[in-house]
Write a structure and sequence with these properties.
Blueprint (H helix, E strand, L loop, with lengths): L2 H43 L3 H4 L2 H33 L6 H32 L3 H6 L4 H70 L4 H19 L5 E2 H19 L3 E7 L8 E2 L3 H11 L9 E8 L2 E7 L14 H12 L5 E4 L3 E7 L6
Parallel strand pairs: 2-4
Antiparallel strand pairs: 1-3, 4-5, 5-7, 6-7
Helix pairs in contact: 1-3, 3-4, 3-6, 4-6, 6-7, 6-10, 7-8, 8-9
């Protein structure tokens, strides 16, 4: 048996299974459920039939109730529910739909009952149906049957409303999820050009200063940017990998600033491959500290990256600059906060004093 034959056989078995499953469901709805309900209803019509030996009357009542049940359940769907679903959907016209459902259900049930009683009394028993109807002898059984039939009909209408509401809720949640995913993807696509923009800006400053470190910067930048291209489309990356990348990123800026820029890594707890953070999160924070502070021999920038209590805290001293750099894209912290909001309920904490600025990033553990 070749691959195509195996696939066709699998599809055939799958189709047969669904047909079998659908057949069982239909059998339950059309036979089992109505039959059980009819036995109970028939007992209500003639509670003493079985005790007094009127088995034929009891069987007739069961059959009558069975036909009535299916006429209402299936007929209501075809002649009431389906047209109303088309012209008066539950979610768009709830009040009008409720009113019309009640009116049409009562009208349909009344017509079905009169037709069935006519067949039962006039055709089966040979009674004068209209004479019995005019004398009021059918009033009680018709009212009793109508109430039961309306209850069954309204049950199916309520069921239809529930399924419509549930379907709308599912679709609404699906749209929300798709919207969130779209926004998250948009945020991720901002990270890549944002990193390149700032790296090229740093390279420009090295070239303008005619620094010997420009060539070394370019060589290391290619390795760093390779990581950016590989990881920037991921939702999360390993903390271990991100720290390795950040060390390389820091090396780039040590070429640019020399001893005026220093980053200390303090690890107060062990880390493993299951701990994750958004890609380029640490890089964004270090870049943010460089971008918003003056860095010189008189005013060096000291950054501290601390890992403790399942979080990463990036702290830097504040060296205010008089004029904000014109190349600032204002994407850094806002982007990071939004990305975290899509990934976890834990928030990014930002604290600032007169001398220090710090950002606390939660370490995520999706596999725990």
């Amino acid at each position: 048996m070749n691959k195509q034959q195996t696939l066709d056989l699998s599809r055939m078995k799958n189709t047969e299974y669904h047909m079998y499953k659908g057949g069982k469901k239909m059998l339950f709805k059309v036979v089992a459920l109505p039959l059980v309900g009819s036995i109970i209803i028939a007992f209500g019509f003639c509670p003493n039939c079985l005790q007094t030996g009127h088995y034929e009357e009891y069987i007739v009542n069961v059959f009558f109730s069975f036909v009535l049940w299916n006429a209402i359940s299936m007929g209501s769907y075809v002649f009431v529910v389906k047209p109303l679903d088309k012209y008066l959907p539950w979610l768009e016209y709830p009040v009008a739909r409720t009113i019309m459902s009640i009116v049409m259900s009562i009208s349909y049930v009344t017509i079905i009952l009169l037709v069935l009683y006519y067949i039962l009394l006039e055709v089966y028993y040979g009674f004068d149906f209209f004479h019995l109807l005019n004398n009021g002898k059918l009033t009680k059984p018709i009212i009793y049957s109508t109430l039961i039939a309306i209850f069954i009909s309204l049950f199916f209408h309520a069921r239809g409303f529930f399924f419509a509401f549930r379907e709308a809720a599912v679709q609404n949640e699906k749209l929300k999820t798709e919207s969130i995913n779209a926004k998250f993807e948009s945020l991720k696509t901002q990270v890549n050009p944002h990193f390149l923009f700032n790296s090229l800006n740093a390279l420009t400053m090295l070239v303008e200063d005619k620094s010997d470190g420009a060539v070394d910067f370019i060589q290391k930048l290619s390795g760093v940017y390779r990581y950016v291209l590989q990881q920037s489309d991921q939702e999360l990356v390993s903390l271990v990998e991100e720290l390795d990348f950040v060390h390389s990123y820091v090396d780039l800026h040590e070429i640019r600033f020399g001893e005026n820029f220093k980053v200390d890594f303090i690890q107060n707890e062990s880390i493993n491959d299951t701990q994750m953070i958004p890609p380029l999160a640490l890089q964004l924070l270090i870049e943010n500290s460089i971008k918003h502070n003056e860095i010189s021999s008189d005013r060096p920038l000291n950054v501290q990256v601390t890992i403790e209590n399942n979080a990463i805290i990036v702290t830097n001293n504040i060296n205010p600059i008089r004029v904000e750099k014109r190349d600032s894209t204002q994407l850094g912290l806002k982007n990071l906060q939004l990305r975290y909001s899509f990934l976890t309920n834990e928030s990014v904490e930002i604290n600032q004093t007169e001398k220090e600025f710090s950002v606390k990033l939660p370490i995520l553990n999706p596999k725990s």
